[in-house]
Design goal:
heterodimer, A: about 375 residues, alpha/beta, Rossmann fold, Cytochrome-c3 Hydrogenase, Chain A, domain 2, 5-stranded parallel β-sheet, two-stranded antiparallel sheet, 19 helices, 9 strands, globular, disordered C terminus, B: about 575 residues, alpha+beta, Cytochrome-c3 Hydrogenase, chain B, 4-stranded mixed β-sheet, 3-stranded antiparallel β-sheet, 15 strands, about 40% helix, about 15% strand
Chain lengths: ~375, ~575
């Protein structure tokens, strides 16, 4: 089966061509690329072999694994049975102990330079790494070994991306993101937890184009983190109109007015929550009446905090302002201005252009 | 007498290491060690108590919701805030879906592979499998030969393909796997069905909590999700319909798949009613109704005596660190109540990489909670026993039904099997409650009660200069308590005593073992190179940390590296 493509694997298992294309279309939508790219994705997956994936846990809460358990495009069972070969994942793998370690070592040894490494959780580097040990080894020792032989390193969730909640002031354990520990190129699927659709779309992008998606200054894929939540927010018209929730459960809350006055961090947060939402498109925090806490922003536990305090100096509240200026102003205040600017410029330039996609992604 | 290393023990959450000594084919001693510390309690100091739940929810993404609930309850308790009835009901539904979702995932995807040999399912006869499954329940797929055939084919292709992924290197073929191939195939089919089911029913969390994991509609004082049948931006009639739909699906799967599977699997492993027990149990009570009466009662059972239930007094809870990598300012020998608790790390263990911990010294990041200086087991079994001993009608009926079907008496509950059965029993009872809570929420809407939050004390200027509170939540994995001390509007101290801390803590100064360490003693180990039995007992607690297990021989010989196949 090592030689078998994902598509032939799927058809052998009775998955129809139509369902296969539906999945490809779903992935294209999340990636924000034109539907004209669907045949391209389908073609790539038809040829691709199921890549080995090792998924490691460090200083974390397993929320990102749980997020993948909720994935809908594709589902977890499709993902692990059909798309990838998940060869190490402590939360769901059958073997324990040495047998589990063997699974890891087999991949490191036999698939050198070919496997995808996924990291969940921060790496606490203070005091020789004693704050997170697995099998007697520190997280730092493990991540250095595993990342060295990986074709691609993907950090999932804000802890692996940037240190996350463990790195919140005063960062008692010296928690750091994967990129800070290993350097080089790391894809950061940020968020707390990450949205699984962004993870699966990244995998599909890699299998389709053989390259990683474009990343912003924080290592986050632009297809998912290129736009300000505030600009895509379903409540944006109420912000522009000066209609704000003032008290939990008040008339404005019941009518879905803007949560800016209640502390919403949408004006400084980049993520695609408003468009892809959560749990199969059921809802997302602002839709459910709670402020955004900028969970995909580096250091959100300090820079977006306190969560119920109104952001200062957001221009245009009650007026119609250009959204990018708002994003820029606030993000700069949150010390993330440069990356944000780059992201916005990129997003503004990027239009649906399959030809451009073909050129860029060839090879 | 082999000394083997099983490290890490998988299919749990977090990082835990257990060292155990085996003599004559049985475990004679064991040590549990948590190997990760993040210091979130330290991070919370000086922050706004209204924000605390967003941080504490990140204690855990598996039992996501539980630390949010306990946190807002602690602050509400400190400030004397009563939440509106709608907030109570929304929280009840969120907690209930958490319990149901968590327990089903635990049974099939975490614990299940300790009892079910997936590879053996390849040998099953799909016709006989359908006959077996349909004799157990009228779940639609159970009588479909074609369904079991297609599952078996899927499995065969997977195995033949050689890329076994998460199933590679399992203890397949171990003689302690006792299910016939047909039962293994049935359970494998349900393993896959449960994966799809859980994704569907957890939409209830997205509806009420914005997203899952880490729902984000909690507030000190209530919930942020509005209720208004005349708005498209609030819980309305459509939401009630969706809640009813997922509630029905939840109850159907639990009663037609989970419970029949649990009973069928348990009937092949009745000897496991003889291992893995503990003596003392604590339940803090959960699902209070509008009058404050708990559905699952609070109480304490001592020394397996079901004739008496003692009341819980939170003042008797205290934590030791004599074997934990922390320091107390007045010495490490005494325990501290959580309101005056301290979390000052002081690692004295070996420098990584290491092969062994010195268990004669401090050996864990987990503290040692005690109730009146007694170790307590918390979790589904504790809740079940406290309710059973309190004469709780539904619990008693369901427990007696299960005991009768398995042909065992109440003493069998004090065991690995009893713990696993209790989890199923309470899942069924909670699933049966869903419809009623949805109905109460709809009834409130009908009478025009749209309140979801009590905002009287939202503004910190209304708070006393100093306040302290405790928030209890009998979470899926057991009694949880968050303790908060507030000074000048900021958190002065924050401590969480979590279920796995009760169950997995190291020894106290008297040498008393906590449940993990105690329960392993006497557990047989048929093949020390594949100690599936340790997984069974440890998984029966549904630990919330990733584990590593070591077995030592009495001579403390060199490590015996296990190479499977």
């Amino acid at each position: 089966m090592d030689r078998e493509s994902i598509y032939s694997h799927l058809t052998r298992k009775g998955v129809s061509r139509r369902d296969f294309l539906k999945f490809c279309a779903g992935a294209a939508a999340t990636l924000g690329i034109c539907s004209s790219s669907v045949p391209r994705i389908a073609e790539a997956l038809e040829k691709a072999q199921r890549p080995s994936v090792v998924w490691l846990h460090f200083s974390e809460c397993t929320g990102d694994s749980e997020s993948v358990l909720r994935a809908t495009k594709p589902t977890l069972s499709q993902l692990i049975l059909d798309i990838i070969s998940l060869d190490y994942h402590e939360t769901i793998m059958a073997p324990s102990g040495f047998a589990a370690e063997k699974s890891l070592q087999d991949i490191i040894r036999n698939k050198k330079g070919k496997y995808i490494a996924v990291y969940e959780g921060a790496v606490p580097i203070k005091d020789g790494g004693v704050y997170c040990c697995v099998a007697g080894r520190s997280a730092e020792q493990i991540v250095k070994e595993v990342s060295a032989g990986a074709a691609v390193n993907i950090a999932v969730g804000n802890c692996a991306c940037f240190g996350g909640v463990a790195a919140a002031s005063p960062n008692p354990t010296g928690a750091a993101g994967i990129k800070d520990v290993i350097g080089g190129r790391v894809v950061n699927i940020a968020g707390c937890p990450m949205n699984s659709e962004n993870f699966t779309a990244t995998i599909v992008h890699y299998l389709t184009f053989g390259t990683l998606p474009d990343l912003d200054g924080n290592g986050r894929p632009r297809f998912a983190f290129g736009k300000l939540i505030h600009n895509n927010c379903e409540r944006r018209a109420h912000f522009d109109a000066g209609q704000f929730v003032r008290k939990w459960g008040d008339e404005g809350a019941r009518q879905g007015w803007c949560l800016y006055e209640m502390g919403c961090k949408g004006p400084m947060a980049y993520q695609n929550c408003p468009t892809i939402k959560w749990n199969g498109g059921t809802s997302w925090p602002v839709q459910a009446g709670h402020p955004c806490i900028a969970c995909a922003a580096p250091s959100n536990w300090d820079t977006a905090y306190p969560f119920y305090q109104r952001l200062p100096e957001v221009p245009g509240a009650g007026l119609t302002a250009t959204a990018d200026k708002i994003g820029l102003g606030v993000a700069a205040a949150a010390a993330a201005g440069v990356a944000a600017h780059a992201a916005i410029r990129y997003v503004n330039k990027k239009k649906c252009n399959p030809e451009k996609g073909e050129d860029k992604d060839n090879g | 007498m082999a000394k083997i290393v099983v490290d890490p023990l998988t299919r749990i959450e977090g990082h835990l290491r257990i060292e155990a000594q085996v003599e004559g084919g049985r475990i004679v001693d064991a040590w549990a060690s948590g190997t990760m510390w993040r210091g979130i309690e330290t991070i919370l100091k000086g922050r706004d108590p209204r924000d605390a739940w967003t941080f504490t929810s990140r204690f855990c993404g598996v039992c996501t919701t539980v630390h949010s609930i306990a946190s807002v309850r602690a602050v509400e308790n400190a400030l004397g805030i009563q939440i509106p009835d709608n907030a109570r009901l929304i929280r009840d539904l969120i907690m209930a879906f958490q319990t149901i979702h968590d327990h089903v995932i635990h049974f099939y995807h975490l614990h299940g592979l300790d009892w079910v040999d997936i590879v053996s399912a390849l040998k099953a006869d799909p016709v006989k499998t359908a006959a077996l499954a349909s004799s157990l329940s009228d779940w639609p797929n159970n009588n479909s030969v074609g369904h079991f055939k297609s599952i078996q084919k899927k499995l065969k292709d997977f195995v033949d393909g050689g890329q076994l992924g998460i199933f590679a290197n399992g203890y397949w073929g171990h003689k302690e796997y006792r299910l016939p191939p047909e039962a293994n195939l049935m359970a494998t089919a349900h393993y896959l069905e449960a994966l799809d089911w859980q994704r569907d029913i957890i939409r209830a969390h997205a509806l009420l909590g914005a997203k899952n994991p880490h729902p984000q509609t909690f507030l000190v004082g209530g919930m942020s999700i509005p209720v208004d049948p005349n708005s498209q931006n609030a819980l309305n009639a459509g939401s009630i319909a969706l809640l009813n739909e997922v509630s029905k699906k939840a109850l159907e799967f639990v009663s037609k798949v989970y419970i029949p599977d649990l009973l069928a699997v348990a009937s092949f492993y009745k000897d496991w009613a003889g291992y893995g027990g503990f003596n003392n149990f604590l339940a803090c009570g959960e699902h209070a109704d509008a009058d404050g009466k708990f559905f699952f009662p609070a109480g304490i059972i001592k020394n397996k005596d079901l004739s008496k239930v003692y009341p819980v007094d939170q003042a008797k809870i205290a934590e030791y660190i004599n074997n934990s990598w922390y320091s107390y300012s007045d010495g490490d020998a005494k325990s501290r109540h959580p309101w005056v608790g301290e979390t000052t790390p002081n690692y004295t263990g070996p420098k990584p990489p290491y092969e062994h911990l010195d268990t004669n010294k401090k050996y864990s990041w987990v503290k040692t909670p005690r109730y009146d200086d007694m170790a307590m087991e918390v979790g589904p079994l504790a809740r079940c026993l406290v309710a059973y001993a309190s004469g709780h009608k539904q619990v008693k009926e369901t427990v007696d039904m299960v005991l009768k079907k398995l042909g065992v008496g109440p003493a069998a509950l004090f065991s690995t099997l009893g713990r696993t059965a209790a989890r199923g029993i309470e899942t069924l009872l909670v699933a049966q409650k869903l419809e009623g809570w949805v109905g109460e929420l709809a009834a409130n809407m009908k009478k025009g009660d749209y309140r979801v939050a009590n905002t009287d004390k939202w503004d910190p200027s209304t708070w006393p200069k100093e306040a302290k509170g405790v928030g209890f939540h009998d979470a899926p994995r057991g009694a949880l308590a968050h303790y908060v001390v507030i000074k000048d509007g900021k958190i002065d101290n924050y401590q969480a005593v979590v279920p796995t801390t009760w169950n997995a803590g190291p020894r106290d100064p008297k040498g008393q073992r906590s449940p993990f360490e105690q329960a392993l003693i006497g557990t047989p180990v048929a093949d020390p190179m594949k100690p599936i039995e340790i997984q069974r007992t440890i998984h029966s607690f549904d630990p919330c940390m990733a584990c590593a297990i070591h077995i030592f021989d009495v001579d403390k010989k060199e490590l015996f590296k296990v190479e499977v196949q």
